[in-house]
Design the sequence.
């Protein structure tokens, strides 16, 4: 079976913005190009990142000025793969956390963008499931409901990473419409009045799919409609819940693994990679499934709480550290992603053993972690972080040997915002990276 290179299946016409562009410019492009996300080009050879509708809603709820430059907000980064990478090898990067890839050349210039559905369709269209139905694999029945007469601003404040769509009902509790990320882009792109009821901007009627629909038909439907999810109903037209693209992928990965066991050498290789990465899809929670520590969602909640505590009670401030594993891509490329995951888990154990019970340790994403040190000035925090750096660099990681990390450290001050303190710690970490790695850099305002 022939599998193409990643560039062969990539979308070449990618919507991009620069770090110097504003949030509003990103919204304009999302609306004009009818995209739910925009790629943020890196400065100073840093990583690519992505601005999504979820980010847009979050920034609005935080009252962030849309004239703010994107460089002043820390967004999720995107894994970049070389254009010569085969689709077979690219699958190894896909997980519930990594749902898209940037395709770059040897100079790290963007050549295209690949989603998980691009990868899905390129392997073997014959594996689209014909016999199993949607009702059998619907892992999540969770759906958020609201009255259609509530103001648009109130509805948007209820949308987050866990609920990026809301079913809207009338006063008789009948489902009349839905608000999705696509609608959110239009609302902000056209600068709609957020005080008006959401019924003026909702999509209607709700497009549903019956629970007895074959999975293959459901896949064709979701791809043709460019939906992020399917709303599933029973024979009586009652809404049962939703199934997301990620849930579809998780089940298809498992099916691939079963089918490919009996195929040729190349299929066996794909099967091995898929089996490594295809764990059961789980709904996002406050815990990172791989490492067992807090995830980014919980970190953001804890950071907001710390900021509120400092402002409300005028108590001692806190310090914030960001750490990034040095040369982690080399670990994955050399030893494989399973060993890479083992490194992440052992690293977490090493770091946790040197933190206080009151410190907040979270995984930001990929090989990047964040630490909040409450009631700790930057001088004391540096002693703690330097101790962690030394312990990590002297630890022996099974099959890998030694691993080092670069740390950025800062202290929150009364003029800081949620985003400014993160950006400053991130900038300090970048200085550590460009100054030789395996070091702690401090930036204070």
Sequence:
């Amino acid at each position: 079976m022939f599998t193409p290179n990643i560039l062969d299946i990539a979308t070449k016409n990618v919507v991009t913005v620069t770090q110097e562009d504003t949030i509003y410019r990103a919204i304009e492009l999302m609306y004009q190009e009818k995209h739910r996300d925009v790629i943020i080009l890196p400065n100073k050879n840093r990583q690519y990142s992505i601005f999504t509708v979820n980010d847009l809603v979050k920034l609005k709820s935080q009252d962030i000025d849309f004239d703010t430059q994107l460089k002043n907000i820390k967004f999720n980064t995107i894994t970049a793969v070389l254009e010569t990478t085969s689709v077979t090898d690219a699958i190894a990067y896909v997980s519930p956390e990594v749902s898209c890839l940037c395709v770059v050349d040897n100079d790290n210039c963007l050549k295209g963008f690949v989603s998980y559905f691009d990868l899905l369709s390129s392997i073997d269209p014959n594996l689209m499931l014909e016999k199993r139905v949607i009702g059998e694999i619907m892992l999540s029945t969770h759906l958020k409901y609201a009255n259609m007469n509530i103001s648009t601003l109130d509805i948007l404040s209820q949308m987050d990473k866990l609920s990026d769509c809301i079913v809207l009902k009338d006063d008789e509790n009948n489902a009349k419409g839905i608000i999705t990320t696509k609608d959110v882009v239009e609302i902000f792109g056209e600068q709609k009045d957020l005080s008006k009821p959401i019924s003026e901007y909702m999509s209607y009627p709700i497009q549903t799919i019956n629970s007895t629909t074959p999975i293959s038909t459901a896949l064709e439907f979701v791809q043709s409609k460019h939906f992020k999810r399917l709303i599933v109903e029973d024979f009586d037209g009652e809404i049962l819940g939703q199934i997301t693209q990620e849930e579809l992928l998780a089940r298809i990965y498992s099916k691939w693994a079963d089918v490919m066991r009996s195929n040729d050498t190349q299929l066996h290789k794909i099967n091995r990679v898929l089996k490594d990465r295809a764990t059961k899809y789980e709904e996002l929670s406050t815990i990172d499934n791989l490492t067992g520590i807090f995830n980014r969602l919980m970190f953001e909640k804890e950071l907001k709480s710390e900021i509120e505590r400092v402002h409300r009670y005028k108590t001692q401030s806190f310090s914030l550290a960001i750490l990034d594993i040095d040369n982690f891509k080399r670990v994955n490329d050399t030893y494989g992603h399973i060993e890479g995951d083992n490194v992440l888990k052992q690293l977490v154990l090493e770091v946790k053993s040197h933190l206080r019970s009151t410190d907040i340790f979270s995984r930001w994403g990929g090989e990047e972690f964040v630490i909040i040190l409450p009631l700790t000035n930057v001088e004391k925090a540096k002693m703690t972080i330097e101790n962690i750096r030394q312990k990590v660099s002297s630890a022996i990681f099974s099959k890998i040997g030694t691993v080092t990390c670069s740390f950025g450290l800062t202290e929150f001050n009364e003029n800081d915002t949620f985003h400014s303190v993160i950006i400053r710690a991130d900038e300090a970490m970048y200085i550590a990276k460009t100054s030789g790695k395996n070091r702690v850099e401090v930036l204070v305002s």
Q: What stands out?
A: The radius of gyration is 23 Å. Residues 278-284 have pLDDT under 50 and may be disordered. The CA atoms of residues 140 and 243 lie 6 Å apart.
